[in-house]
């Protein structure tokens, strides 16, 4: 098998396992309140981390570039209570504009 | 009266980001083609791995001659977050083993974030409706990308990479309804940013997940 296909098969298998581990092992059962208290904080922690890394993350360094303008536009749109589509498009447009003129 | 969400509500909720996912996966098809993965392998990868950043990472490693094991290791690290994420979905996914297994494959960052209904709970129909929509866009985008590779330029011109954090920010705000949730968000972002210079891609997100342990504190 070539490196490409070996990668496709192994990565596919690993990802399928990672995504299914919770639902397959404990699917449908309630988590204990203590575990739920921890798990309920995973969403805000990861969402904030996604935002931070996807905006300021570079190759092993933190950078402020056109994506920061996109974040700023998203914040403004959210403050104006714009729908999600507008928030997303405002971020993309602001970033594209800065890239075009910077 | 609260009506429980339908699959269609999940599709509607993900609609703003679905075209972005299509373009993102189109650019994956273009890049994978350029990196020498051929036409069929990138499509199979999108259909089986269905996780953007991991696919880009594996392609980058292969493209620079890193070999299969290095490619899988880098990409698996990026996908390790799906283990704790799948745990949060587990209580909402009942039914037979096969149906739990199949539905769990529709977990991606965006479908999981869209399906949050508060208190750490995920709505199954929102998750499946959003996840299935993204899956079709993702595999379809890859097909268009590998076929029309030379017609498309650099997708970053369109600011695509800023669309995803904007979505996550929009989904984060309603989550910040308790003091602990705000603390977890601030701590998660701080851990991730602090880890970027010192770790491989993917590790900052996993380390940020540790912020949820403040839930153990009374």
Major sheet of chain B: size, sense and barrel closure? 2 strands, antiparallel
Mean pLDDT of chain B: 90
Average pLDDT level of chain A: 93
Strand order of the largest sheet of chain B: 1-2
Distance between the termini of chain A: 46 Å
**Helix/strand structural class of chain A:** mainly alpha
Q: Number of helical runs of chain A?
A: 5
- End-to-end Cα distance of chain B, whole Å, is 33 Å
Order of helices and strands of chain A: HHHHH
Strand content of chain B: under 5%
Oligomer: heterodimer
Q: Beta-sheet strand percentage of chain A?
A: under 5%
Largest sheet of chain A: none
Low-pLDDT sequence parts of chain B: none
Which percent range fits the helix content of chain B? Answer: 55-70%
Shape of chain A: extended
Tell me the total number of β-strands of chain B: 2
* Outline type of chain B: globular
Could you tell me the number of beta strands of chain A? 0
Low-confidence stretches of chain A: none
Tell me what the structure shows.
The complex is a heterodimer of chains A (102) and B (218). By secondary structure, chain A is mainly α. Chain A is built from five helices and no strands. The longest helix of chain A has 24 residues, at 3-26. The model of chain A has no long low-confidence stretch (mean pLDDT 93). With 218 residues, chain B is mostly helical. Helix content of chain B is 65%, strand content 2%. Chain B contains twelve helices and two strands. The longest helix of chain B has 24 residues, at 124-147. The model of chain B has no long low-confidence stretch (mean pLDDT 90). Chains A and B meet through helix 1, helix 2, helix 3, helix 4 and helix 5 of A and helix 3, helix 4, helix 5, helix 6 and helix 7 of B.
């Amino acid at each position: 098998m070539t490196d490409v296909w070996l990668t496709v098969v192994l990565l596919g298998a690993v990802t399928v396992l990672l995504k299914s581990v919770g639902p397959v092992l404990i699917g449908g059962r309630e988590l204990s309140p203590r575990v739920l208290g921890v798990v309920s904080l995973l969403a805000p922690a990861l969402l904030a981390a996604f935002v931070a890394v996807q905006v300021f993350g570079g190759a092993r360094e933190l950078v402020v570039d056109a994506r920061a303008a996109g974040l700023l536009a998203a914040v403004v749109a959210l403050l104006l209570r714009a729908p999600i589509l507008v928030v997303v498009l405002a971020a993309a447009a602001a970033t594209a504009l800065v890239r075009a003129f910077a | 009266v609260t009506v429980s969400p339908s699959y269609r509500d999940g599709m509607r909720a993900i609609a703003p980001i679905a075209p972005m996912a299509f373009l993102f996966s189109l650019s994956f098809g273009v890049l994978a083609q350029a990196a020498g993965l051929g036409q069929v392998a990138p499509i199979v990868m999108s259909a089986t791995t269905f996780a953007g950043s991991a696919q880009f990472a594996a392609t980058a490693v292969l493209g620079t001659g890193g070999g299969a094991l290095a490619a899988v290791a880098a990409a698996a690290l990026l996908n390790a977050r799906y283990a704790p994420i799948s745990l949060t979905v587990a209580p909402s996914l009942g039914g037979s083993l096969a149906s739990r297994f199949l539905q769990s494959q529709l977990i991606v960052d965006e479908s999981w974030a869209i399906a949050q209904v508060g208190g750490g709970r995920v709505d199954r129909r929102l998750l499946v409706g959003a996840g299935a929509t993204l899956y079709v866009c993702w595999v379809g985008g890859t097909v268009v990308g590998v076929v029309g590779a030379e017609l498309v330029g650099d997708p970053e011109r369109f600011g695509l990479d800023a669309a995803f954090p904007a979505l996550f920010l929009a989904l984060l705000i309603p989550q910040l309804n308790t003091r602990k949730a705000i603390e977890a968000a601030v701590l998660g972002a701080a851990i991730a940013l602090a880890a970027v210079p010192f770790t491989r891609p993917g590790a900052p997100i996993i380390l940020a997940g540790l912020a949820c342990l403040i839930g153990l504190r009374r």
